[in-house]
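As a warm-up, study this chain.
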Amino acid sequence: MKIAELLREEMVIPRLSGESKEEILAELTQAVAAGYSEIAPADLLEVLREREKLGSTAIGEGIAIPHGKLPTVKRVIGAFGRKPEGVNFDSLDGQPTRLFFLLVAPEDSAGAHLKALARVSRVLKSEELRGRVLAADSRAEIYRAILEEDGKY
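Now compare it with the structure written out below.
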């Protein structure tokens, strides 16, 4: 599975405005719902909130991968957001979270969902990529950096 299969350029948000975990989740949810008519924003936000109750999806190094499943989606869908100054997302390392990759999968897609999570995690763990994404000036530059890093695997 390649990230290009999950993420469209218009689903990259170069500057998230949210100041809290809840606001970031809501902002990402609205962006995904605007781009995919089969996703109801309230349903997605509830799924993401429920997942966060199980444990933070902020995995450290400034990265969070909020994710969940909805019966209305037919394939794994992604969105990416950047908040250069970071927010408290209850990260495992206690540091501010600055890069957010939202994944939404069909309810019956355990394999695809796990593959997408693993792929995104692997790509975002690259310190070089994180630096490039944080320094990027545009949505296109962020998108290109993510796809180039993904192409290395």
